[in-house]
Amino acid sequence: MNTQTDIERMSRLFSEVYPYLALYITDKYGYKEGYCLDIGAGAGSLGIALAKITNLYVVSLDNDSAAIDVTIKNILFEGLAHRMMVIKTDVHDIPFPDNSFDLIVSRGSVFFWDDLPGAIKEIYRVLKPGGKIFCGGGLGSREISRRIQQVIATDPRYKNVRNNWREAPNIRDKGQNTAYFVNAIAATGLKGSVIFDCEGIWIEITK
Ligand SMILES: C[S@@+](CC[C@H](N)C(=O)[O-])C[C@H]1O[C@@H](n2cnc3c(N)ncnc32)[C@H](O)[C@@H]1O
Predict the structure, then answer these.
(1) Which domain holds residue 76?
(2) Which stretches of the chain are assigned E, i.e. beta strand?
(3) What total number of domains does the chain contain?
(4) Does the pTM exceed 0.70?
(5) Does 71 contact ligand 1 (Cβ within 6 A)?
């Protein structure tokens, strides 16, 4: 279980990643308004970065109370309460009606989902026709990735991260396991692709 301090420390370390991804996502899909869902939002950083450069209304979803508390703090700090909301729930059971969101993003969370095909189907359910799903994990650019890995490898404050990483090879290995993602999409019966970009692996689906 992560504490608020852990979550805040990680989001500071990754702080260059979110604006990079937000630009990438908006350039690629073009959404500047509408409804966006950020799943497994952690400190809310990707959703906040998207809200800052668009007029999107962003819902940050996470199943962890500490993450939700940090996200609320960050949304208030950024003055984005009028264009963001948070929801504590599980990705496998999203309490929104069908066809609610134009854009659904998630970074660094898919590796923890118990039932990836089930989660993809649930995400697809709440996606509007014509909407886009971009879910996976990545560190942005090669330079950003190198800086982050260097800090994690050497900074004593990230000893826990190093240890967790070593103790959770099943989570870590999913990041390199294309078949895991390809098979998950196939199991849903939906059309989608696995793409390698932004120093990571992503599922991309259009409804
Ligand atoms: C490594 S963190 C990534 C946080 C954030 N997206 C980021 O890029 O900094 C993974 C997040 O996914 C959340 N998470 C894991 N499993 C989940 C699930 N089944 N439903 C919703 N959130 C989940 C965790 O609570 C955690 O906040």
Answers:
(1) 4-206
(2) 35-39, 57-62, 84-88, 101-107, 127-138, 193-197, 200-206
(3) 1
(4) yes
(5) no
